[in-house]
Amino acid sequence: MHPPLPTPESRLPIVIDTDPGIDDCLALLLALYSPELDVRGITITYGNTVVENAYRNAVEIIRKVRHPVRVPLGIGARRPLKRQLQVADDTHGPSGLGYADVPPAGVILDYVRPLERVLEMQPEPVTLVTLGPVTSLALVLRANPDLVRDKVARHVAMIGNVEAAGNQTRFSEFNAWCDPEALRAVLAAEIPTEMIGLDVTRKVIMKGNEVERLAQHSPWLHDALRFYVEFHKKQEGLDGAVINDVLAIAYLIQPDVLTFSDLRLSVDLDDGQRRGRTKLDPKGSFTRVAMAVNPAPVRRMLFERVLPAGALAEEAIA
Known about the structure:
By secondary structure, the chain is α/β, with parallel strands linked by helices. It has a single domain, classed as Inosine-uridine Nucleoside N-ribohydrolase, Chain A (Alpha-Beta Complex), CATH 3.90.245. Helices cover 38% and strands 19% of the residues.
């Protein structure tokens, strides 16, 4: 028997701040296809690509959803608080979505509502999910800290690493590296933050043959993901792709896929290899950090809800 569908009252209200991004694309689709979640808003930040591309990508991703989607789109941060803007076009391609066909990016106009406005619109506190650098949240904390405390019940962030190696430098995860000052400010505010970083996301992998199976039924996603697979093969010798951001959304739907430790962390503000390192520090900010994951239910959820039947590798179903 299938469990009963969530009622509108039982759905978890969330706002997603994201930098789409190939793995962000899968995460957004999973959120929009999941009846357990009530996506109240999506705000766009720099990170994997520039804001203009990321906004265009979000619009295209929403258009791919197989049912009508009415969700406010907003703009978060366009650049880090202090650092020079750098994006991950080597990982996600010049457009941010690999080889997927997308229209030209437009100019982001100032009338598009910011994250602060999206939060103000909420009638009740929400879960804020950040899938990119946390600059957007840091800016709202700076401008209106009471709003964050009133409207953000919890903050779930795909960011950082404690024991795992970095993916931007030897020590640092990309989102933390982009704007370490923002991450330090967010952690220092001690809003309830759950950090889902490379210690667990690196164990959630979409295999190369699974991506190839998308070619017939989901050519657009196939074109996005094959760029990601090529990057991972060249960079790490991996036949597949690490789909980091999917885990943050899957955790909201099925919390038992992750095990957390209560830790105190500080963020390194150096300019070298340790820039953005999230390290254990007895005087640091209290944070719940995901340290163990069960990847199988996450992958199954992604394939059942987002990707065509039959694409999941047989050994993963067993």
